[in-house]
Amino acid sequence: MDSKYLAIYNDIVNKIEVGKMEPNSKLPSESELMEAYNVSRDTIRKALALLETNGCIQKIKGKGSFVLDVNKFDFPMSGLTSFKELAGKMGSGSNTILKELELISGDKFIMKQLELSEDDEAWKVVRVREIGGKKIILDKDYFNKKFVPDLTKEICENSIYEYIENTLGLKISYAKKEFTVQQATEEDKAVLDFENFNMIVVVKNYVYLEDTSLFQYTESRHRPDRFRFVDFARRR
């Protein structure tokens, strides 16, 4: 019966979720699963195919099937939340690794995003975000120097938003966001713990102050298996 492979699928998913099958552990072979569940090879293969489709396992040719980490962090699509605030809500150990901090000018693309002339200056801040011991976000932030005249390593490793609001006294108001799924770049694979994935979720933010001044452009690159992008919607 077709329902058999669904029952096997649900049983394995439950074992993964409760920790009986740990991330990166190898699943039993098809023959062992056939014996354990007393079903045909075709039924087992249907269950494994569904597990792979839904991101629960990764099949590696010649090696077998391996359990993926199904625990995902909620990333709010609406609202403006700093990584420090987001990590606090997740309750997982987090760390920020500063890769670049410099003033730039003459970059046509970035200056266009910030609505600046090529002669204007902007801060470029590149940070890797580590959660639960895994590097899973690459953040590239650009700030208009007119509004953020100075940045330090300590500020960037703590919270730039906290510095802007509490030290500079500016009020961050709203943002325009763009979500896309793209092919991972060599940079993504080099700086993140990317494992076997080849796609990445890119969130672009254009962030404005209370007086509608655009002060920040951000490109935040997320490993696709570790986040749920969530929102609350109401029909008007």
Structure description:
With 236 residues, this protein is α+β, with helices and mostly antiparallel strands. It folds into two domains: 3-67, Arc Repressor Mutant, subunit A, CATH 1.10.10; 73-230, Chorismate lyase (3-Layer(aba) Sandwich), CATH 3.40.1410. The chain has eight helices and ten strands. The chain has helices at 3-17, 30-37, 41-53, 83-90, 108-113, 153-158, 160-166, 186-191, and strands at residues 57-60, 64-67, 73-76, 94-104, 122-131, 134-144, 172-183, 199-209, 214-222, 227-230. A six-stranded antiparallel β-sheet has the order 4-5-6-9-8-7. It has a two-stranded antiparallel ribbon with strand order 1-2. Helix 1 crosses helix 3 (41-53) and helix 2 (30-37) packs across helix 3. The radius of gyration is 22 Å and the shape is elongated. 22% of the residues are buried.
